[in-house]
Write a structure and sequence with these properties.
By secondary structure, the protein is mostly beta strands. It has no helices and three strands. The chain has a domain at 3-40. Helix content is 0%, strand content 18%.
């Protein structure tokens, strides 16, 4: 379900709208003043990443001689 962020032109409120499949402009109504005059904002994309455990990497291989990550010790593999 796409989420779009908008800013109301008359009152300046920023709000999110969850759309079912595609953006429907009739659904874009300011929750503060009920205006349908808005500006669509650019939102940052959410990225999920794999994180190592708090106690450290699962692999005890050290870094490579060139300073890179070998054997998965940096948690990025």
């Amino acid at each position: 379900m796409p989420v779009y962020e908008y800013r109301c032109v008359p009152c300046g409120t920023t709000y999110d709208i969850f759309h079912r499949g595609r953006e429907v402009t009739a659904d874009v109504v300011c929750p503060s003043c009920a205006s349908t005059h808005y500006k669509k904002l650019m939102s940052a994309a959410a990225v999920a990443s794999k994180q190592s455990s708090p106690s450290g990497p699962a692999c005890d291989a050290g870094p490579c001689d060139d300073g890179g990550c070998c054997g998965g010790s940096c948690g990025m593999n």
